[in-house]
Recover the amino acids of this structure.
C-alpha cells in the first residue's frame, strides 16, 4: 500500500543592507602668526681704562735726584747734626785748654787731632738700594654692559578646522520573500475535502 506523503518546501526570507559610508574630511588651515621684535634696542657698553701708577721717588732719592724741598730738608738735618758736633768739639777743646795747668800740652793734642786725615771708607751700594724702592699700584679697568631684555611680541590668529562629515546611509530591503509550499506525494487524494 502506498501511503501519501506530505512534502513541505520552505524558503527563508533574505534581507540585504546597502551601506553608504563616505569618509570624514578634516581640513586644518595654518594659523596666521606675526612676530614683532623691537629693533631700537641696542647693547650699550661703558668701560673705564685701567691705570698703572709707578712711584720711583725713593729710587730717584737713592741716585740723589730729589725734589728741592726734600734736598733742603736733608741739608737742614745734616747741618743741624754737624753744627751740634762742631759745638761739642769746641767744648771739648775748651775743656782741654782749661786743664793746661795740670801739665798737659793741650795745644799739641788739639793740633794733632785737627791735622789727622779722616779715615777712608769704602762702600758698595746699589741704585735703587732694593726692589721695594719702586712701587707699583695697578687699578684694573671695568667694563659695564647694558643689555636690553630683547622682548618680542607674538600675535597668533588661530583658524578653526573645517570638518566635512557627510551622513551615512543604510538601505535595508527584502532581497527574497519567505515562502512555504505543501505538496502530497504518492497517492491520489481527494483534494476537495
Amino acid at each position: 500500500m502506498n501511503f501519501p506523503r506530505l512534502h513541505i518546501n520552505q524558503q527563508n526570507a533574505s534581507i540585504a543592507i546597502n551601506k553608504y559610508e563616505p569618509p570624514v574630511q578634516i581640513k586644518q588651515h595654518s594659523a596666521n602668526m606675526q612676530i614683532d621684535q623691537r629693533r631700537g634696542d641696542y647693547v650699550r657698553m661703558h668701560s673705564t681704562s685701567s691705570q698703572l701708577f709707578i712711584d720711583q721717588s725713593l729710587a730717584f732719592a737713592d741716585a740723589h735726584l730729589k725734589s728741592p724741598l726734600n734736598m733742603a730738608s736733608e741739608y737742614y738735618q745734616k747741618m743741624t747734626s754737624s753744627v751740634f758736633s762742631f759745638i761739642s768739639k769746641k767744648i771739648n777743646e775748651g775743656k782741654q785748654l782749661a786743664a793746661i795747668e795740670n801739665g798737659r800740652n793741650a795745644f799739641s793734642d788739639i793740633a794733632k787731632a785737627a791735622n789727622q786725615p779722616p779715615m777712608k771708607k769704602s762702600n758698595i751700594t746699589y741704585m735703587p738700594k732694593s726692589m721695594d724702592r719702586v712701587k707699583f699700584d695697578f687699578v684694573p679697568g671695568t667694563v659695564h654692559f647694558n643689555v636690553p631684555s630683547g622682548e618680542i611680541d607674538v600675535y597668533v590668529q588661530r583658524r578653526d578646522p573645517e570638518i566635512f562629515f557627510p551622513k551615512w546611509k543604510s538601505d535595508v530591503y527584502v532581497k527574497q520573500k519567505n515562502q512555504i509550499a505543501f505538496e502530497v506525494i504518492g497517492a491520489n487524494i481527494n483534494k476537495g475535502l
Notes: Residues 66-126 form one domain. The two ends are 21 Å apart (CA to CA).
